[in-house]
Design a protein that fits this description.
It is built from three helices and no strands. With 82 residues, it is mainly alpha-helical.
């Protein structure tokens, strides 16, 4: 039956995949910022927050966060959302 399997579908362009990964990363970073801004999470370790937002590498999390928000994650800890 034509179109019944994934083999019949054209491959997604690499640029579309990158955009999807960027959107997923954006959502994970927004979640991390919300967690960091919550006073209830003030004592959690940064690595625990990164892991809870699906970042398996703390250095990568820090780089992404700084790139997206212009500040280190530790600077957002306990801050109020705008």
């Amino acid at each position: 039956m034509p179109g019944a399997s994934g083999e019949d579908l054209p491959p997604k362009p690499a640029s579309a995949m990158r955009l999807r990964l960027n959107r997923v990363t954006e959502l994970r970073l927004e979640r991390a910022r919300a967690v960091l801004e919550s006073p209830a999470n003030g004592r959690r370790k940064m690595i625990d927050i990164a892991y809870s937002c699906a970042f398996n590498d703390l250095s990568y999390f820090n780089r992404c966060f700084r790139h997206r928000f212009g500040a280190a994650p530790s600077q957002f800890r306990g801050a109020k959302a705008d």
